[in-house]
Amino acid sequence: MIRALAIVACLVAPAAAFAQDGADLLKQLNGTLEKVSPSKASWKSVLEAWSEATPPPCSAESGCGQDSIWPGMKEWAKFASWAESNPQLARALLAAQAMDGWNMPYGADLVPARLREKGVSVTVGSGNHLSNVVVGYLPAVRTIGLYAVAEQYRLCEAGRFQQGFELGLAYLRLLRQVCDQSLLTEKLFGMEQLTQALSVQRDMLWRYRQSLPPRLASSLAKDGYTLLAKGDAETLRRLKMPEADILVMRAQLALGFDSSGTPLPGKFAQAFGADPAHPSPMQRFGEEKLWSRLAAVHASLQDSEQKLQAVYDDWYRRWRMRPYGSPYESVPTRLSTMNPVRYAAVDAQIRDIRSVFDARKLLIANLNGTAYAASLVAYFRNEGNWPNTEEKAVSGAYMRARFNLDPYNKDFDPNRQPGKGFGFSFAPSDRLLDTTAGRLSVKGPIVFSLGADLVSEGAKQNTDDGSKGDILIWPPVRELAREQGLLGS
Questions:
Q1: According to the model, what pLDDT value does residue 349 have?
Q2: Pick from 248, 299, 289: which is nearest to 269 by CA?
Q3: What is the pTM of this model?
Q4: Count of beta carbons in the 10 Å neighbourhood of residue 275
Q5: Can you tell me the distance from the alpha carbon of 281 to that of 304, in angstroms, rounded to the nearest whole number?
Q6: Is the pLDDT of residue 443 over 60?
C-alpha cells in the first residue's frame, strides 16, 4: 500500500513540476526505479558480457528468434559452437538471477563509455520531441536470448540437463527483471520476450520428456518456473504497471501551451504535429496544420493534465483488479469516454498503453502453463505414464495446484477446483488439432488456455496468442510440427 500511495503522489505532482528539458525528464524517470544498490543491479554485468561476445551466426535483427533455434535446424552446429565459445554470458546470466533487478538507469551519461558506444542507452528526445524515447538495450537482450536457448539445447543434447535448465531459468528470471522497468516499451518487450521464452521451455520439456531426470522435472514444476521473482505468484501481482510513461506524456504535453496554460497553434504544431520521425515533409506539413487548428478548441493545460491523470489512475485501479468478477469490470474506461478532440494531445500520446493489459494476461497464461507442463513431465518421469484425468494432473504431488490458473477462464475459482483452471483432456489415440503450423496429430494429455475469446474450443483450433481459438499449452505446437514435418529447419 505504501508503494502504491507513493506512485500516486508522484503522478499527481502539479504542472510546475513538469520536466523542462531532456535532462530534467531523465532525472524524473530515474526516480521511478526501485532503490537498488548498483552492485545489485544486473544490467551492467549482463551487458558487459554481451559486449564481449562474438556475433551469433544469425542475428535477431535479421530474423532469427529464440523460438527458431533447436538442434534440428540447418545452422545448429554453428549456433552450438557459438554458444560454447561465449561462456561469459552463462556466468553473467547465472549471477544476474540473484540480483535485485535489471534497474538500468535512464540517460546515456549513466552508462559506461564502452557500453554507451554500442548504443545500449535509454534516451529521451530533445527540443519539441521529448517523447521520442529510444531504448537501446533491446537488441542486446534479444541476442542474449539466442545464446540462452542455444546453450541450453547444447547442454541438454550432451545430457547435462541440470546445467541446461538452470541456465534457462536464469534467462527467464533476467527477463522477469526487465518486466519491472518503468517504461511501457521496456515492459512490453520484457513481457513478450518472457512469454516466448516460456514457450521455448515447453518445447524443451517435450523434446527431453523421455530422458529428463525425474528429480529435476519435479523441481522445475514446483520450484523452478513458479519462482521467477521474489514474491511472484500465479497472478503476477507484483508486476508493476508502466509508471514512467505518464512523466514523458506530461513533459511532452506541456510543450504545446504558453506559461498561462493556454494552447497555442504554433506550439501545438511543433509539439504534436512536426515529428521528425515521419519522413515525408508533406505529411509533417499536414499534421502541423491539423494541430494548429486543434489548438483553438483544445482544453487548457490544467484540464488536459487532469484528464491524463484521470485516465492513468483508472488504468492503475484496473491493473490491481482480479481477472474477473469485479463490479468495476463493466464500468467504461476513462479513455473510452474522453472527448478525442478537446483532449487530442492526451489521446495522441496515451492510446498505446492499453496493450500492456493484454500482454500481461498472455504472460500469465504462459507462465502458469509452463509450470503445468513441467508437472506433467514430472508425473510421467516418476510414474512411468501420463496422467489421464485432470484430477491426477493437478494433484499436489507434482505441481503447485494454484498454478492451475488460466487468466482467460471466467469461471476462475480461488480454490483452484478441477474444471476451473486450464482446459484438460486426454486423447488415448491420435486426435487432430488445427494449429498455426497446420493440422497436427496429438496423443496423451492436452492442456490449453481458453484464449482471448474466453470460450473453450477444446483445443481443436488454437493460436499462439489466443486471438483465435484456444492456446495449446501441452503438447507444444512447435515441437509437434517439427516432429511431424510441418515446420522446416
A1: 86
A2: 289
A3: 0.92
A4: 17
A5: 29
A6: yes
